[in-house]
TrEMBL record:
Chief site of localization: membrane
Cited InterPro entries: cNMP-bd_dom, cNMP-bd_dom_sf, Ion_trans_dom, Ion_trans_N, K/Na_HCN_channel, RmlC-like_jellyroll
Superkingdom field: Eukaryota
Domain (Cyclic nucleotide-binding): residue spans on this chain: 398-512
Chain coiled-coil ranges: none
Listed Gene3D superfamilies: 1.10.287.70, Helix hairpin bin (1.10.287.630), Jelly Rolls (2.60.120.10)
Membrane topology, from the record: Multi-pass membrane protein
Record's protein name: Potassium/sodium hyperpolarization-activated cyclic nucleotide-gated channel 1-like
UniProt source species: Poecilia formosa (Amazon molly)
Subcellular location: Cell membrane
Record's keyword terms, sorted: Cell membrane, Ion channel, Ion transport, Membrane, Potassium, Potassium channel, Potassium transport, Transmembrane, Transmembrane helix, Transport
Keyword Membrane: yes
Length: 518
């Protein structure tokens, strides 16, 4: 059968069919939870073998469904207050149809939640058992979801049709009051804001790009959407309350002569007053409240504005603090270093060289290289060093045409070092136990009789790593030099497993005893 790649790698079209949309897709989040592609395939088989209709939390259908529900929910949270406050029952067929469609979709969502697989942070696999899903949903979000999904749209549609078809004035007046009550009751649909928050959290969890940048983007987007909704609702309330009082003579709507204005003008003034009160400016609300209702509206606006400002500052501070932890840790380390150098009363020139060394060594980002290399697998460590150092070893005669296993063993023994401009790396006639490979930078090799410049890819000190003898020249850094070093002890440990190579190198030492290499 024909194989296909997608949410169920390794399964066939004939086996999965349309149910492939319900199975987990292969992405970073599913790989993080299950560990490998094979484990994801086993999860697909487990779901197929269960024989029940369950939407997996990592399935394409779940991802697309969340995106659609986020858009519908956000449109509801914007449109419902606008309809109640400004449209005054003249919302039109298009909006009423959207209301009915939204109510239908949210009722369907309540039903589908009994078939939505659950993934928890500490779980090794998704919960796909129908009974467990049902119990979990009934204990958590079922009641809020049912309240938010109450089909107000259907009630309004039928009531509007009855109201427009009724010729009896008394019945029409009674129906109009009922309609007003139902429209106020439709505010319960604003409880759908809890769904918006949940949808954002779920999008963040099942995102195909499980990266901190993506998570940060969704946090910022959700924060600004919530702030926008708060300002939008407040602006609608500013106009809605005077409308309930049938616009008393001293209300701000009559003072601004907005009775016959367009919806956009009324909404703009309402949001303007709301923002003025929320950020405690006198713009838009220069007059004191004329009654206790307006006074309460102003007080609620001011409190909600303070809360909005506090949440915004707190989230912004947290995001900035977590934006670049490596740079933050580097600054903390440098601060401690400066205190130490001041306490030890080191000369300013030496303090500057130490600070420059840290900058050259870490580049403004603090990391524990030893911890990183110790925690990754030996295979990954070998690949990292192969990328960084393999070309350096190939230029050294004693490492050319050697067993690949020996080269890989030597790579694991290399240590990264940084030398500043003017540093003496090795001194002539001083016993040495290491050889050096220059990755980046320039140095000069000096003896009494000659001088030679070294640059990227050059090496020195090979005699010392072979014989543990004295350096035959002095090597001084002309620029900041990034080097890799190989010690005599580590080299001897690597040679223990390769006796033939050890014999060849011992012969090379005898031949080059008078070669004058460093």
């Amino acid at each position: 059968m024909e194989k296909f790649k997608g949410p169920t790698t390794g399964f066939t079209k004939a086996t999965c069919g349309w149910r492939a949309l319900l199975l987990p897709q292969l992405n970073r989040q599913s790989l993080y939870v299950y560990g490998s592609e094979v484990a994801v395939e086993k999860e697909c088989k487990r779901q197929l073998e269960s024989g029940v209709f369950v939407i997996h939390p990592f399935s394409p259908m779940r991802s697309y469904y969340i995106m659609v529900m986020m858009a519908i929910t956000f449109l509801n949270l914007i449109g419902i207050p606008m309809e109640i406050a400004f449209l005054d029952g003249d919302s039109g067929l298009a909006w009423e149809s959207f209301n009915v469609f939204s109510d239908t979709l949210f009722l369907l969502d309540v039903v589908l939640n009994f078939r939505m697989g659950i993934i928890t942070e500490d779980a090794e696999e998704a919960i796909l058992d129908i009974k467990k899903i049902r119990v979990s949903y009934l204990r958590t979000w079922f009641i809020p979801d049912v309240i938010a999904a109450f089909p107000i749209g259907y009630i309004l549609l039928f009531a509007d049709l009855h109201y427009h078809n009724d010729d009896n004035p008394s019945k029409a007046n009674k129906m109009m009051r009922i309609l007003m009550f139902v429209r106020i009751l439709s505010l319960i649909r604003l409880a759908r804001v809890s769904r918006l928050v949940r949808f954002f959290n779920e999008v963040e969890k099942v995102s195909n790009a499980n990266l901190e940048v993506v998570r940060l983007f969704f946090r910022i987007l959700s924060l600004f959407m919530m702030i926008f909704l708060l300002c939008h609702w407040n602006g609608c309330i500013q106009y809605f309350v005077p409308m309930l009082e049938e616009f008393p003579t001293d209300c701000w709507v009559r003072k601004e002569n907005l009775m016959n204005s367009t919806v956009i003008v009324k909404y703009s003034w309402g949001v303007f007053r709301a923002l003025s009160q929320m950020i405690a400016l006198s713009y838009g609300s220069m007059d004191a409240p004329t009654n206790y209702i307006e006074m309460w509206i102003v007080m609620v606006s001011m409190v909600s504005g303070c809360m909005m400002y506090t949440i915004l500052v707190a989230n912004a501070t947290t995001m900035i603090a977590n934006l670049d932890p490596a740079a933050k840790e580097y600054k903390s380390k440098m601060s401690r270093l400066e205190h130490y150098m001041a306490f030890m009363k080191l000369p300013p020139e030496l303090q500057l060289r130490i600070s420059n060394y840290y900058q050259a060594r870490y580049g403004g980002k603090w990391f524990d290289e030893k911890y990183i290399m110790d925690t990754i697998s030996s295979s990954l460590k070998e690949q990292v060093l192969m990328v960084m150092c393999s070309q350096l070893l190939k230029k050294v005669p004693m490492f050319q045409n050697r067993d690949e296993n020996f080269i890989n063993d030597v790579l694991l023994k290399l240590h990264y070092e940084v030398f500043q401009e003017g540093d003496v790396i090795v001194r002539q006639n001083v016993p040495g136990d290491r050889m050096f490979f220059i990755d980046h930078g320039e140095a000069v090799m000096e003896t009494e009789s000659y001088e030679r410049e070294l640059c990227d890819g050059d090496f020195f000190g090979e005699t010392c790593v072979l014989t543990k003898g004295k350096h035959l020249a002095t090597v001084k850094a002309l620029t900041d030099c990034q080097c890799f070093s190989l010690s005599w002890d580590d080299f001897q440990e690597a040679l223990r497993g390769f006796p033939d190579i050890k014999k060849d190198l011992e012969k090379m030492v005898l031949v080059n005893a008078d070669g004058g290499v460093v």
